[in-house]
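Input.
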Amino acid sequence: MSHIPVLLKESINSLKIKSNGIYIDATYGCGGHTKLILSKLGNYGRIYAVDCDIKTILKHKIIDDRIIYLNDNFSNLKSILNTKIGKIDGILFDLGISSFQLNNSQRGFSYMSNGPLDMRINQRTKETAFNLLKNINEKKLSEILKKYGEEKYHKKIAYYIKKYIIHKKLNNTQDLSNLICSINKNNKFKHPAKRSFQAIRIFLNKETKELKKALKNSLKLLKKGGILSIISFHSIEDRIVKYFIKKHSILYKKSIYHKLPLTEIEINNFYKKEKKQLKIINRIFPSKKEIFKNPRSRSATLRIAEKI
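Output.
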């Protein structure tokens, strides 16, 4: 199955592409979003295509002088684009993993096909999902399944994962998927292993930590009027995006009366530090037509904000 970009037109239209603007596709993947941005850019426009998975870049590389490819994690945007701080017209994040990664059984992301327990997005890192499951204690594993997968049977699944791996009965993705399915038998709407696979992948790749860092850095990179466009696919990452935008788009109401008396200078400094940096533009969901054509889009949410 080829990769179909989710909310493609909506996310690119939200960026309000300027002919000679500078943009960042922070999650290049299969290049679908970058390709559409290029179609709207003039000869002097530029797009930075960022992806920590070099195999994905090489497989889907677009030959165009207006693209600068950066093989790095999007959390490092500020350091790899140091000279562009305050000059970026728009940043797009399409979170999660691509169909190219998911459909390659050797990458270990899929609970539908057999492959090694890998799950590394950046294959330059050393720890695989198998190493993680082998070395982590049962309590911590249970916490991961609950926190990052919102898995109802997190304790039972963690117990049996540790039991099976000790007895060398857990060697690949099919073993893990079958084990989870034998425990979670009542899920009629989603594959029983989906939540656990998601949780292991998120924790292994430090996805929530990297996302928080990337969002923070994006504020420093965007120019005034620059657009932040973010597509998320599950409630955990969407909450991070939602609260980040909310925090920076309203006056953050912390108590300033915890140490009295406060001088006028101290109060002014507090409000100066907490000033608004973003304006909420919109939240968009896939249409019924898109969901029918691409079921993967069902859980997607696009949030858009503008730097002020």
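The first strand starts at residue 22 and ends at 25.
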